[in-house]
Amino acid sequence: MPELPEVEYTRRRLHRAMTRARITRVIVRRQTLRYPLPAEFAARLEGQTVRAVVRRAKYLVVELSSGERLVMHLGMSGWFRFMPAQLEAHDHVVFEMSNGKVVAFNDPRRFGFMLLLSRDEHSECGKLTRLGPEPLDKTFDAAALAAPLARRKTSLKIALSDQRVVGGLGNIYVVEALHRARLSPKRRASTLVTNNGAPRPALYDLVDAIRSVLKEAIRRQARTDDGNPFRIYDREGEPCPRRGCRGTIRRITQAGRSTYYCPVCQR
DNA sequence: ATTGAGACCTGTCGGC
DNA sequence: TGCCGACAGGTCTCAA
Fold first, then answer.
1. What is d(CA A52, CA A47) in angstroms, rounded to the nearest whole number?
2. Any bridge partners for residue A158, and if so which?
């Protein structure tokens, strides 16, 4: 599930359920997430009012009235269930709010985590400070990508998956953006930058592709149609969806993860 | 400093 | 039906 669009959709729902409400009760049903929850986790949260729920890359940050922050990551399989009729397996942490809303964090694989940080711990938290730019911010442009890509000796796919280069892209949306920009995932990252560090035209295309892929995916979240909503991801052997392209989608492995691409139109 | 491999965990799916 | 391996949208750590 969770790359930037899914995390952003989760943030909006959490915001509606929690912001300006008080946390009346926290039930910890499983302490051993990626990082074990401290014994006083529930007590520190109960009684606090939620000021805001914000997102940074794939991280969710609940801002609390004490100044503390609850930093959360969904990992591979984490998600929130809103107003669950009853608790189920893998509902690890439940928040009950003064407005009557209940949200349950569910995560079968437990790669997700929650960190309750003081104001200072939060501002120094390396997980957040080392992140690259937000791809949907105005500051994200070809110039912002040029420097980190120029230094890389790896492929575009690997470079774009690195959260220090851009924050929030994961396996699926990197694959989708590269197809949209007609760029091969195997191409060396530094070839999108000239020798003196200026963006080449393809880098502008890539920036546009990243932004549009993410925006469309966020818009799509509210709908719950099933089936594979992606053009390329998990479509090995199918014809390339680009108009006029007669290529067939291939699957390769890069850094241990699946990459899908069209060898005909992606160069 | 980069980079790849392995680890963390559970669930699901395809093949035999 | 049952078993087994491969694989899954993320990050971290460690060795080269």
1. 15
2. none
Write out pLDDT tens, residues A190-226. 999 999 999 999 999 999 999 999 999 999 987 766 6
**Which domains does chain A possess?**
4-129 (3.20.190.10), 142-261 (1.10.8.50)
Write the DSSP symbol of residue A164.
T
Q: Is the pLDDT of residue A239 over 90?
A: yes
Closest CA to A96 of A45, A47, A40, A23: A23
SS3 assignment for A52-91: EEEEECCEEEEEECCCCEEEEECCCCCEEEECCCCCCCCE
Closest amino acid to nucleotide C8 (CA–C1'): A76
Q: How far is CA A256 from the centre of its chain?
A: 19
From the CA of A261, how many Å to the C1' of B6? Answer: 26
Q: CA-based angle A15:A177:A209, to the nearest 5?
A: 85
Question: Which nucleotides in chain B lie closer than 7 A to a protein CB?
Answer: 1-6, 8-11
Is residue A69 packed enough to be buried (19+ CB in 10 Å), middle (13-18) or exposed (0-12)?
A: buried
Catalytic residue among A55, A58, A231, A235: A58
Residue with tokens 């390769």: A252
Is pTM beyond 0.90? Reply is yes
User: Do residues A15 and A53 touch, judged by C-beta distance below 8 A?
Assistant: yes
A154 contact to strand B (CB, 7 A limit): yes
Alpha helices by DSSP H, A131-252: 142-151, 156-161, 171-180, 201-221
